[in-house]
Amino acid sequence: MKQADELLELLSRALVVIVPSIWFENQPSSILEAFAVGKPVIASDLGGMTELVEHKKRGLLVRPGSVDDLAEATKWMWSNPGEARAMGKAGFEYARAEHGSELRYKRTMQVYESRIAEYRK
After folding, report:
1. Residue 35: which of 106, 108, 87 has the closest Cα?
2. Class (C level, CATH) for 4-120
3. pTM (2 decimals)?
4. What is the residue extent of each domain of the chain?
5. Count of other CB atoms within 10 angstroms of residue 88
6. What's the farthest any 2 CA atoms get from each other in the chain?
7. CA–CA separation, 58 vs 39, rounded Å?
8. What is the pLDDT of residues 61-100, one digit of tens each?
9. 20-32 in b/e burial notation, b at 16+ Cβ within 10 A?
10. DSSP sequence for 51-103
């Protein structure tokens, strides 16, 4: 397992981050970490990964467990570095707009405030 600076260094040198999970993931941190440094993601078309990785916009989705799909998507990214960078930029903008710390704080506080209001009724 990589930590902070080492992880950031590895991610910054990558063209793409691959998340080939065959498990029904909810919201993998690895995808948000990739987006935070502007990297596109190749992920399995499964679970919450499909919500994070909008196909052909923030990365590519592949059939879970399909080695052929994964190989093809990886080749495509390697052969289209300009489009891969554009997907990474879209991922960065998405992560900043939908998963930034200020927004998470605001949404969390809204949940707490609504529960407190219900309790006081």
Report:
1. 87
2. alpha beta
3. 0.84
4. 4-120
5. 24
6. 60
7. 8
8. 999 999 999 999 999 999 999 999 999 999 999 999 998 8
9. bbeeebeebebbb
10. HHS-BTTTEEEE-TT-HHHHHHHHHHHHH-HHHHHHHHHHHHHHHHHHH-HHH
